[in-house]
Design brief:
- The structure is a single chain.
- This protein is an alpha/beta fold.
- The chain has two domains: about 25-460, Amino acid/polyamine transporter I, CATH 1.20.1740; about 480-605, Rossmann fold, CATH 3.40.50.620.
- The protein contains 23 helices and five strands.
- Strands 3-2-1-4-5 form a five-stranded parallel sheet, sandwiched between helices.
- Helix 21 (about 520-530) links the parallel strand 2 (about 505-510) and strand 3 (about 535-540).
- Helix 4 packs across helix 10 (about 210-225).
- The longest helix has about 35 residues, at about 105-140.
- About 45% of the residues are buried.
Amino acid sequence: MSLVSRLKRLLVGKPIATKHAHNERLPKRFALPVFASDALSSIAYASEEIMLVLATVSVGLLSYTFNISIAICALIGLVAISYYQTIHAYPQGGGSYIVSKTNLGPFAGKVAGASLLIDYILTVAVSVSSGVLAIISLAPQAQTYMVEIGIVAVALITVANLRGARESGIFFAIPTYTFIVLVIAMIITGLFREGRPVPTEIAQAPVKELSWVYTFLILRAFASGCTALTGIEAISDSTQAFKEPVARNASQTLAIMAGTLSFMFIGSSYLAEKFHVIPMKVTATDFKTVMAQLCIYIFGPGSWFFPALQVATALILFLAANTAYADFPRLSSFIAKDGFLPRQLGVVGDRLVFQNGIVLLSVLSTILIVLFEGDTHKLIPLYAVGVFLSFTLSQFGMVFHHLKKGSHWLNVGISGLGGSVTAVVTLVIFVTKFEYGAWLILVALSAILIVFSLIKRHYTYLGEVLTLSEDDTVPIVKTTALLLVPRLHRGVLKAIAYSQSLTNDVRALHVTLDPGRTEDIKKEWNRFGADIPLVILESPFRSLVDPIIEYIDQAREEDPHTMITVIVPQAVPKRWWHSVLHNNVALYLKVALGSRRNVVVTNVRYFLP
C-alpha cells in the first residue's frame, strides 16, 4: 500500500463495500443534526442580523425585532409545508433542482441548481465564520486568528464528511442536541426572569413614525433575518440518505426541524427585546454576540452556563456547515448526471460519499473565508438570495406537479401561496441588500449558468464524436517503439524484451550529455541490444527531454499515421523516499507529449530488490 493510500485510510477509514450502503443510511435521530444543523444554528445570528440593521438608524427601532421574527417564522412554516409535499412527491431526492427541472423545464432547473450551489458554499463560509465569532465572544484575543481558525474548522469538517454519512451523523449529534437543549433552557429560564432595565441609549433614542425610509429599513431587517430559512430545503434534497421509509422519515425530520427552529427563533428574539440587548460590533478588546449577552443577563457573568453555551454555539455553527457538505455533493451529482457539471462529481467514493463534491466545496468555501476575512457581516448580504430563488422555483414547480396529478386544490393553493410569498421575499432581499453586495449573486449565478452550458456543450460534442456508427471498424495500426536508454542496466534488459514484443520497428534512443561516454554506451549496447539500432542524440543545451521530442516530431512527420510508443525504463526503489533521488523522465515526457497525436508514453518498471 502506498504512503498516500495509508494516509487516506488513516484519515477517512477503510473502504465500504457497495452491498453495505444501506447501513450508511441515517435514522431520524442522526439525520436531524446532519441536515438541520444549518437551519438550527441560524438562531445564533438571525436575530442579531435583524437587530444590527435596525440599530444602524436608531436603537429605539429594536422593538420591532420580535414582530419581524414572527413574520419570518410564519414564512418558515409555509416553506416547510411546501417541502413536506416535495419530499412525498419526489422521494428520490434532488429537491428544488429536480422539481424545477421536471415541471418548469431544464432552464428553471439549472437556475435552481446554480442558486443552491451558491447558497451551500456561502453556508459553509457564514456558518464557520459565525462559529469563530462565538469563540471570540469567549476569548476576544482570538480575533487576530479569525481566518486561520475558520480554515482549520473547514479542514476538520471535510475529513469528518469524507469518512461517510453515518460516522459524520454520530459525530455531529452530540453538539447539535447540546445546543438545542441549552438554548431552550435559556429561553424558558429567561421567560421567568425579570427583564433588564431600559438602557439610557435606548430610552433616549427617537423612534419616528414609519416613513418609507423606515419601511425600507424594516424590510431590510426582515431580509437579513430570513437567513434563518437557509438550509430548510436540505432534507428534501437528500431524502435518499434516510433509512426506509425515506419519505416518512424525511418529512417527520423536516417537521421537527421547523418546529424547533421557530420556537428558538421567536424565543431568542422575544428575550432580546425583554432584556433590551444592543448588538455589538467586533473589536479587539471586547465583543459579545446577542446570544452571549442574553446568557449573561439571564444566568449572570460568572455562571457555568455562559462558557457552555458559547462552546455549544461555536460547535454547532462550525458543524452547521455540514448541511452544505451533506447536500452540495448530492446536488452536484444530480447536475453532473445531467451533463452540466464534470462527471467526476457524480462518482461515489470508497466511503460511499461523493468525495469530489466534498473537496470542491471545501476549496470554494475556504476561498470565500479568506477573501472576506471571515467577516459574517460582509458575507450575510450575499446569503439567502439564492436559496429563496430556489424556494420560489421549487414551489411553483410543485403547483404544476399538483395540476398534472390532479391533486386536491388545497395542495395547489399551498404551493402557489408559498411560491408567491417567496418570490416577493426574493425581490425584497435582493433590493434591500443590493448595495451591500447582493448584486454579486447575479454575477455568480450568470457565471455558473454559462459554465453549465459550456460543460453540456462539450459532453454533447463528445457523445457525437465517440458514438459508433455501422461503418466503423477496428483500424490496423502500425507501431514504432522508441526505447530510451540512459545507460545499460538490468531494467533496460527487460525493457528491450518488452519493446520487441510490441513491434518489429524498434529503435533505441540515447541522449548524450557527456560525449566521452558515447563509445562506452555503444559497446555495451552491441553486447545486449539484440540487434536493435541505437540512435545517439546530441544535446547541446544539456536537456534530456528536448532532443527526444524533436526526434519524435521528425518520426511523426515521416509517417503521421504510425503509433509511436515511447518506452521509459524505470527503477522502482524499496523505500518511497528513495524516489526523490531518481530522475522521472517519463513524467516530463507525458506532459510534453500530451498534445501530440498518436504518441504513447509507457514505463517498464524494474523493482529493486
